[in-house]
Design goal:
homodimer; 271 residues; alpha/beta; TIM Barrel; 11 helices; 17% strand; EC 4.1.1.23 (chains A, B); decarboxylase (chains A, B); Orotidine-5'-phosphate decarboxylase (chains A, B); lyase (chains A, B)
Chain lengths: 271, 271
């Protein structure tokens, strides 16, 4: 999906919500049996219920790989079910030497119809570049993450700044704001001003709202740019809004609340 | 596999060779059709041919994911086919927030019988720790990699040293030399002396010999410790030794040459 289409979707829906399908068979409502087929039935119901309120879905590959071959098949069915009108992210945190990253890019952009893959920057340019070579596809590179471990390396000094600042500065030179986004956790609200100095035009994928405690209002105020420039992800807060038979209705309600809040922020912070 | 068993295998075989199954359907000998089933037949023949000369196999997950669900199934069949007498590495470069890394650990240690997973350190402690919580299983964390991109971040200043030095120092505190190894590329031979100051006891997984140009002799001289402490990986140099019908014999011959060289280095550098 091109940036132009993504921005149009955001404007049309008044939403920059990404729903995270971190579907754990152990957390499904009791009336669904906890196997891989149940994960697909659950995803399908969640997608149907939230489709109108969000512009993007993020599939966390770990939850599918944990189910073995059958899990990969469920991921495949799920990403096809989402269809062409949502921005489909493989939250896979891949990254390896060039010839291997090329294979990962094939896995998510050719064998599967994802629009974007999250990529870890540690191994440098040749590990990221293969993801940038597809028309209308995106690499979403880890910048500053929402977890406690961000302190261990990302927030450590690196030259004159911090490591995540070096990553944003360096990686943004490898692509454009048409094929490259960054992950910045919502729990790092204070950092967004600095981040927008470094990458004013890029879209940011922002996890950590909801279960992890980040504030949607603060993120939106500090990080929105003229094209919105944000995809804010909520996973557990949406998909596990209810653990009962009404899980899809409950997910629709929570996604709808996010959408309404986002529509207001798009007015307030983005003119 | 415990460290004790791994060291015993190395002594018994006079080998610290890891054969990398980076099997690309496009590079199979012409007499094998280039589909996922052919990848398994190829792997099976390579494993049978090299089993005696190596102590470990490394499956590069990217090459299997690029084939979709069928590829994941081939990976599953391959790792089962290897069996219990080799150290089985999922070269997956995973790493995410804690609850997600827990799912990746399940994928490779429970759904699949791998002994180890390669892990990217960027996101810090909670992204690595779930891989350390399995008896007899290992996290192999990226230290200094063999590719050009190592220059972009790994070899940049971080506090008083370089980033990869900080990674080795910090991460080695999260586990022991019984559940934690590091990836250090063979092309970084000059760095091995410094690396052994930082992590004297840990095993190192060393890719980059062969196709990437690293020297087995230099690596062995500089990095071997009293328990050998090395798993040296060769992928393309072994599995694509011949592109014809004799590919398995050719792989056996190359693996045998590595083994013979390694047996000599075990004598020469390790007493």
């Amino acid at each position: 999906m091109t940036r132009e289409k993504l921005v149009a979707l955001i404007r049309e829906k008044g939403s920059y919500l990404c729903v995270g399908l971190d579907t754990d068979p152990a957390k499904l409502p009791a009336h669904l049996s906890g196997d891989a087929d149940a994960v697909f039935r659950f995803n399908k119901a969640i997608i149907d219920a939230t489709r109108a309120a969000c512009v993007s879905y993020k599939i966390n590959t770990a939850f599918y790989e944990a189910l073995g071959t059958k899990g990969w098949e469920v991921m495949e069915k799920t990403v096809h079910y989402i269809g062409a009108d949502h921005f489909k992210i493989a939250d896979a945190k891949r990254g390896d030497i060039g010839n291997t990253s090329t294979q990962y890019a094939r896995a998510f952009f050719e064998a599967l119809p994802f629009d974007a893959v999250t990529v870890a920057p540690y191994m440098g340019e040749d590990s990221v570049r293969p993801f940038l070579e597809y028309e209308g596809k995106w690499a979403i590179v880890l910048g500053l993450t929402s977890n406690k471990g961000a302190q261990d390396f990302e927030l450590q000094a690196s030259g004159e700044g911090l490591l995540y600042e070096r990553v944003l500065k360096t990686v943004s030179g490898w692509g454009t704001d048409q094929n490259l986004m960054f992950v910045v956790g919502a729990t790092q609200a204070d950092a967004f001003i600095r981040i927008r100095e470094l990458v004013p035009g890029h879209f940011l994928l922002v996890p950590g709202v909801g279960a992890q405690g980040g504030s949607l209002e603060q993120v939106s105020e500090k990080a929105m740019n003229k094209d919105c420039g944000l995809l804010v992800n909520a996973s557990r807060a949406v998909i596990y809004a209810s653990g009962k038979e009404d899980f899809a209705d409950a997910a629709a309600a929570v996604a709808g609340q996010y959408q309404a809040e986002m529509a207001a922020y798009l007015q307030r912070f983005n003119g």
